[in-house]
Amino acid sequence: MNFAWTLLEWFRQNGRALPWRETHDPYAIWLSEIILQQTRIEQGLPYWERFMQRWHTVEELAAATEDEVLREWQGLGYYSRARNLHCAAKQIVALGHFPDTLDEIRKLKGVGDYTAAAIGSFAFGLPAAVVDGNVFRVLARHFGIDTPINTTEGKKTFTALAQSLLPQDTPLTSHLLPLTSEYNQAMMDFGAIQCTPHSPSCPSCPLQETCVAFREDKVAELPVKQKTLKVKERRLIYIYIRYHGETAIHRRPAGDIWQGLYEPWLVSEDELSPFTIYLLPLKLNVKHVLTHRVVYADFYMWEPAQRPSLPDDYLWIKEADIDRYAVPRLIEKLLEKMPNKL
User: Fold this and answer.
1) Do 278 and 84 touch, CB atoms closer than 8 A?
2) Other C-beta atoms within 10 Å of 329: how many?
3) Per residue in 32-57, pLDDT tens?
């Protein structure tokens, strides 16, 4: 039995039951793929369900405000995904239909080669191989490929290999999926369940006999990833102002982390010094890890006798309304430390 058919047999016994696999609706499938970028299924599933319940169609999502979308996204991180999602929804509505070719799907904001292949395969049955982290790992181990997966050469090598392994004939399966679509799902699930990053289930693996990494004892060494740039550190200092039941927040500008999200008064160390004696330290040196940097944050509370004068981009709101505004996960954690939060 060849590679593809072995995987399909495994999938029919072990595949995950996921709601977006029970439909061919491109909106539902596209939404799931965007949410699951950089996000585990267990974390992303409730968000997908909430989005589908609140905005049943792409037209409804396009008609929402960016603030509403960001607030619904809060806690998932990588907020550019939410902004891209909203922008792409407007693109689809302007087009008049959901794009159904790989080239057209790739034109959607926030959609790359993998996401386009996934949407094309699962929604429209296009014979396109998906290549995500799970697929990289399965192919690298099974075929013994040590080309770094995060290089141009590696991406070309693995994409070509994945495409060559797609089943050629496409009869409908019991799930009414073209065989190539079912095979793509099998590849992803096999990497997520069987051929995991750490402690893979090699003893029970149906591909064990033909796996180069298993035969040569290189499972822990593959796939290879080229070292990237050193992660930078950054320090942020926040002052939560409490004045007669109100507080001040501002929206983070474009071109920086957490674009479009809200935060309390952000100050520099020099700006902090004159206020120190008036401030209540809530949480200091909080570590927050992002993809390319580590943020350390200090969080203080200030209850001034008079409303302070702040830069024009700060908005005074009722404390009770702060949950209506989308904030980064770091700020969400810091707000949990607030005493007597309304």
Assistant:
1) no
2) 16
3) 999 999 899 999 999 999 999 999 99
Could you identify the residue written with the tokens 């008049």?
A: 96
Q: Which long-range contacts (CB under 8 A, 24 or more apart) does 82-86 make?
A: 83/259, 83/260, 84/34, 84/109, 84/110, 85/31, 85/34, 85/61, 85/109, 85/110, 86/61, 86/62
Residue in 33, 72, 263, 319 annotated catalytic: 33
| Digit-coded pLDDT (tens) for 175-196 | 456 789 999 999 999 999 999 9
b (16+ CB within 10 A) / e for 138-159 = bbbbbbebeebbeeeebbebbb
By the 10 Å C-beta count (0-12 exposed, 13-18 middle, 19+ buried), 241 is classed as buried
Whole-model pTM?
0.82
Please enumerate in sequence order all residues whose Cβ is within 8 A of that of 174, keeping only pairs 6 or more positions apart, or say none: none
d(CA 142, CA 153): 19
Hey, what are 36's tokens?
């699951």
Which amino acid would we find at residue 249?
A: I
Instruction: Tell me whether residue 182 is one of the annotated catalytic residues.
Output: no
Closest CA to 130 of 210, 187, 86: 187
Q: State whether the Cα torsion 263-269-274-279 is positive or negative.
A: positive
Burial class (CB in 10 A: 0-12, 13-18, 19+), 297: buried
Q: How far apart are CA 188 and CA 184, in angstroms?
A: 6
